[in-house]
Amino acid sequence: MTEFTVWAPTPELVRVDVDGTLHDMVRSEDGWWRAEVACRSDARYGFVLDDDPTVLPDPRSARQPDGVHERSQLWQPAPDAWTDDGWAGRSISGTVIYELHVGTFTPEGTFDSAIEKLDHLVDLGVDFVELMPVNAFNGTHGWGYDGVLWYAVHEPYGGPDGLIRLIDACHTHGLGVLIDAVFNHLGPSGNYLPRFGPYLSSGHNPWGSSINLSDAGADEVRAYIIECALRWMRDFHADGLRLDAVHALADNTAIHLLEELSADTDALAGELGRPLSLIAESDLNDPRLITPGTAVDTDSPHNGTTMSTTPSTPPCPANDKAITPISGRWPPWPRR
């Protein structure tokens, strides 16, 4: 028997469609629905909410073989998928990071084709490969920043099995792997999360509605994000994450989501016995992001240059001031 679960406090009725057959689910007081179903290990499934017959993908889907609008598929890695048992990880301090977009790195645009060029990266002196977002987004081509199913791996790249092969090969070549994770917004196509529960808040950021980190139901949303982040490092053996635009995470709680994630990441690193790193991209030049911490990916030089050369560009927060050096490693870059 396979247990299907979904957090869906919004609808009054939830059923799970498994390979075309509907099964009733039982709701608990915390808004979670559960059902046990006898099915194939690679069954296609989705959820039907209230009276709408549309089968929606699982918010925690591991695989979307037909795209973000279709059924999810049960998935587990093959027992012999990993060969990196000897990988002890590496510290990110002072290393060379190569930002890699899977879709344009090779003509084929897949994880497997990228493996064939890892020797080239080693020859360049690269220490870490930073994969631009690999979560599932609508369509075939894109930068990945409009992801809607954060737990699933973009299928045209090679899906979860392909990502395992790439990270495993990177470790064989002595390369660490960072994954660019976008938790500040959801893409416009294939975002069904609001149908299930209060994943979004009333506030807005430059890309749309903000993620609910402080309002009613936020505890489950925060857990959804943190588990997704830890999953990349635990289940996919990533050595860390680059967190996109953390200044757009509107969190008014006593313990900020980033602080919570940082503590959980440290705990996971101790459990796994290898270093794990978090890099936060921010426009705020806020020292709290790196005191204490590992690194901050600042867009200040990029945004400052844009403002200087394009006066009509609206200023980003703190970018209308001189850029503050980080940990003494960057020289001051005054505006002229």
TrEMBL record:
It comes from Mycolicibacterium fortuitum. GO terms for molecular function: 4-alpha-D-(1->4)-alpha-D-glucanotrehalose trehalohydrolase activity. PANTHER family: 1,4-ALPHA-GLUCAN-BRANCHING ENZYME, MALTO-OLIGOSYLTREHALOSE TREHALOHYDROLASE. Keywords: Glycosidase, Hydrolase. GO terms for biological process: carbohydrate metabolic process. Its EC number is 3.2.1.141. This is Maltooligosyltrehalose trehalohydrolase TreZ. Residues 292-336 are annotated as: Disordered. It comes from the Bacteria. Residues 76-329 form the Glycosyl hydrolase family 13 catalytic domain.
